[in-house]
Amino acid sequence: QVQLVESGGGLVQAGGSLRLSCSASGRTFSTYVMGWFRQAPGKEREFIASIIKSGGSTYYADSVKGRFTISRDNAKNTVYLQMNSLKPEDTAVYYCASRPVTRSEYSYWGQGTQVTVSS
Q1: CA 101 to CA 82: how far, in whole Å?
Q2: How confident is the model at residue 69, as a pLDDT?
Q3: Cα(64)–Cα(49) distance, rounded to whole angstroms?
Q4: What angle do CA 111, 114, 117 make, to 5 degrees?
Q5: pLDDT at 47
Q6: Contact, 9 vs 114, CB < 8 A?
Q7: Which pLDDT score, from 0 to 100, does residue 80 have?
Q8: Taking the CB of residue 106, how many other CB atoms lie within 10 A of it?
Q9: How far is CA 30 from the centre of its chain?
Q10: Left if phi > 0, otherwise alpha if psi is -120 to 50, otherwise beta: which for 74?
Q11: Are strands 113-118 and 10-13 parallel, antiparallel or unpaired?
Q12: Rounded-to-integer distance, Cα 18 and Cα 62, Å
């Protein structure tokens, strides 16, 4: 079982930056793929970024590529999402998720943290 807790959301002006953190419990954190998703009001949840267990490979949605960076610290059981050049359309609830490398669907989800970007 893995429990995930996000933090770092808030209100920021367009062009600003935020860093989200996701703390995970469980001894198997380092073996899991970690991902970030977001859901804006009235929209479906969308994939933002993911990082494999070793941190060597990362994947991004086109909408955030070049602006967001995902990273992980396995010693701290934490994954981060550095968000730069934020836009009003980045406003959403951001969720951390994890899955075993052998599965394609994410098994565990955090409660979400709100990010609001004002114009």
Answers
A1: 23
A2: 98
A3: 8
A4: 160
A5: 97
A6: yes
A7: 97
A8: 19
A9: 16
A10: alpha
A11: parallel
A12: 19
